[in-house]
Write a structure and sequence with these properties.
Elements lengths: L5 H8 L2 H16 L7 E7 H9 L2 H4 L4 E8 L7 H11 L4 E5 L14 H6 L4 E3 L6 H7 L4 E8 L4 H14 L4 E7 L2 H10 L6 E4 L1 H7 L2 H10 L3 E3 L4 H16 L5 E3 L11 H10 E3 L2 E4 L3 E4 L3 E3 L8 H4 L14 H5 L31 H10 L2
Helix pairs in contact: 2-12, 3-16, 8-13, 9-11
Length: about 375
């Protein structure tokens, strides 16, 4: 693929002529294994969940593989208490709340969303990048502009870069709430708490930042092989092919399938930027998990002046929407259709939990690719 242009690469990675032989080889390999039960493979990232379901990979390999859906959806894992906190900030007359798009459709404990609050006249802005908050702050000097930042290591460097810009430009009215979470810590926590899987498809975009070594450490600790995969059907099938070999050989190591993007060392410049701005929190709430030790980032002392939580403390308790299994699904303990609300009270138009809101949510994936006419 080295000499192919970008559009040619994408065409290649989804070309049925390429995929069918790869799928046939994988089926042949799986049929040759002696299995008491289906192989359980966790795909950490919600983006992978959507690729697997959209292309029917789970159905094609269902005789041999059970896919377990993980917590790698940054919108889905936002705790209910943090949504309530965002709603309280948005209600203030002196605040402009800015955040990424999917977050505004997650209901709070009172049933309201940021989208509904905005419709009532509160100033809630959707931004497509952290730096888009700078002109908002400059154009509204009498307001406190609060960027409600979310995401795994993929977006953490962007927020760190914004923090440095705020400091350099001396902006006094631009604050940040950090909800940035750590992928390796939540996976470690999940496995420590007893989730049993035979192999793991590790997230490609996160790995582009942190590299392969953190996954290797976890692979050895839990004696579970992993493959870092990209986000095309070819990537998933290719990763599964590698993963089945590692599982067969009982080889707890990490392989990088997504080599066109992921370097073994990751993005060193982004890592240094994160280390300059952030340090690890003692604990942080996750939807479905409760408080998880050392699983999120907070600002270092040099950047504490822009920490919105220092001015507006978050004092909200955790509440789970009645009947919603989103948190259980994120733990790999349930499938979306096992939730009584799924496809009934909870749909993309009337979501109860964030797993039906986010484009990386497992519930939305099943609704789109298993229920849609």
């Amino acid at each position: 693929m080295k000499n192919l242009k970008k559009f040619e690469v994408l065409t290649f990675l989804s070309d049925p002529k390429v995929l069918k032989p790869l799928l046939s080889r994988l089926k042949y390999k799986l049929s040759g294994l002696t299995l008491k039960d289906r192989i359980r493979i966790l795909e950490f990232c919600g983006g992978h969940t959507h690729v697997i379901l959209r292309h029917g990979i789970d159905e094609a390999l269902g005789e041999w593989i059970e896919f377990v859906h993980g917590p790698g959806c940054p919108v889905c894992v936002i705790a209910q208490s943090r949504i309530d906190y965002a709603l309280s900030l948005a209600e203030r007359e002196d605040v402009i709340l800015a955040t990424y798009g999917d977050l505004i459709r997650i209901p709070g404990s009172n049933g309201l969303t940021l989208q509904q609050i905005r419709a009532k006249g509160k100033d809630v802005r959707i931004v497509d990048s952290s730096l888009a908050t700078i002109p908002i702050a400059k154009e509204n000097p009498s307001k406190k502009v609060i960027f409600f930042a979310i995401g795994f290591e993929t977006t953490t460097p962007h927020t760190a870069f914004l923090a440095k810009r705020i400091k350099e430009e001396g902006l006094k009215n631009l604050l940040i709430v950090s909800n940035h979470v750590i992928s390796t810590e939540i996976l470690d926590y999940l496995l420590i708490k007893g989730l049993k899987v035979d192999g793991i498809i590790a997230p490609g975009h996160v790995s582009a930042i942190i590299g392969a070594k953190p996954w290797q450490d976890l692979s050895l600790k839990h004696q579970t092989p992993m493959v870092v995969a990209g986000f095309e059907p070819f990537d998933i099938l290719h990763a599964l092919d590698h993963l089945v070999d590692l599982i067969k050989d009982k080889n707890p190591r990490v392989e990088v399938q997504y080599k066109r993007v992921v370097k073994p060392e990751g993005n060193v410049a982004a890592q240094r930027l994160m280390e300059e701005v952030f340090e690890v929190r003692d604990n942080f709430p996750w939807r479905g998990f409760g408080y998880v030790p050392r699983s999120a980032y907070k600002f270092k002392e040099d950047f504490s002046f822009l920490d919105a939580e220092a001015i507006f403390p978050c004092k909200y308790e955790e509440n789970t929407p009645k009947g919603c299994l989103c948190g259980v699904i994120l733990q790999g303990k349930a499938k979306p259709w096992e939730c009584k609300l799924f496809g009934k009270a909870c749909t993309p138009k009337t979501p109860v939990g964030p797993c039906m809101v986010s484009n990386e949510g497992a519930c939305l994936a099943y609704f789109k690719y298993r229920m849609a006419p």
